[in-house]
């Protein structure tokens, strides 16, 4: 059985000493890049930035998905629109009073708007604007740091979102973010997201060689799920 799985490497967890080497390889295999932008307030960590996206753009044409873990999304959205970042994804938890305005702003720029839900945030939080959303990302770990505990119960939201999409004809794709690796691939596959974000435990931390790590990741997925990855 062949399975078309979309893998989006989380560049926060890549080896920055091998930036060019790893991006050059992944350009031929990944479906998109996931770039975390943290402001040190929404989560107690500071990571990548719009500048980093500019550096990726110099050597890659793959779509970029920016995951904003910030308290002031309006400030960051303007910068990402200027960079024509294909996906701009904002946490639902900071969107009270801003959701329609920012989604419209992103769409008016010809880009795609995504919403991210923390593990404890129910999907009905975004029902007022769900029909406008292009992507919904389900956090399967607490946000802010790589390598945290996989929260299996969050996968129920992926199943609910798939059923809702089928029933209502919504256009969003479903993405999971957090501890996607050989230990969790089977459970994630059963839930059925469209996009797997892979980071340190699933890809970059497997070996020092990105090609070897990518092949191990595919093998881990295939052995866990019993499905051959379509390439």
Polypeptide structure, described:
This protein is α/β, with parallel strands linked by helices. Helices cover 34% and strands 19% of the residues. It is built from 8 helices and 10 strands. β8 (173-177), α6 and β9 (195-198) form a beta-alpha-beta unit. The longest helix has 16 residues, at 210-225. The model has no long low-confidence stretch (mean pLDDT 94).
Task: Describe the structure concisely.
This protein has 231 residues and is an alpha/beta fold. The protein contains eight helices and ten strands.
Chain-wise SSE layout:
Blueprint (H helix, E strand, L loop, with lengths): L1 E2 L2 E4 L9 H8 L6 E6 L11 H8 L6 E6 L3 H10 L4 E5 L7 H10 L3 E6 L17 E5 L15 H14 L4 E5 L7 H7 L3 E4 L1 H5 L5 H16 L2 E2 L2
Parallel strand pairs: 1-10, 2-9, 3-4, 4-5, 5-6, 6-7, 7-8, 8-9
Spell the H/E element sequence.
Answer: EEHEHEHEHEEHEHEHHE
Q: How would the global form be characterised?
A: globular
As residue ranges, the low-confidence spans are none
**Major sheet characteristics:** 8 strands, parallel
Give me the oligomer status. single chain
Strand content: 15-25%
């Amino acid at each position: 059985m062949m399975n078309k799985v979309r893998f989006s490497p989380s560049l926060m967890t890549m080896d920055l000493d091998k930036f060019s080497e790893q991006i050059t390889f992944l350009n031929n295999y990944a479906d998109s890049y996931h770039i975390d932008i943290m402001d040190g307030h929404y989560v107690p960590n500071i990571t990548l930035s719009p500048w980093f996206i500019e550096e990726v753009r110099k050597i890659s044409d793959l779509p970029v998905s920016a995951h904003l873990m910030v308290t002031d999304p309006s400030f960051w959205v303007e910068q990402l629109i200027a960079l024509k970042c294909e996906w701009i994804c904002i946490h639902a938890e900071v969107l009270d009073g801003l959701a329609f305005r920012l989604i419209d702003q992103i769409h008016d720029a010809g880009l795609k708007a995504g919403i991210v839900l923390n593990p404890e945030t129910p999907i009905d939080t975004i029902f007022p604007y769900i029909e406008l959303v292009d992507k919904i990302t389900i956090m399967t770990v607490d946000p802010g740091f790589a390598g945290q505990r996989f929260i299996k119960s969050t996968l129920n939201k992926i199943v609910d979102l798939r059923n809702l999409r089928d029933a209502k004809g919504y256009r969003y794709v479903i993405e999971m973010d957090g501890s996607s690796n050989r230990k969790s691939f089977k459970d994630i596959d059963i839930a059925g997201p469209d996009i797997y974000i892979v980071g340190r435990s699933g890809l970059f931390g497997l070996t020092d060689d990105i090609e070897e790590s990518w092949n191990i990741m595919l093998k881990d997925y295939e052995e866990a799920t019993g499905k051959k990855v379509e390439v």
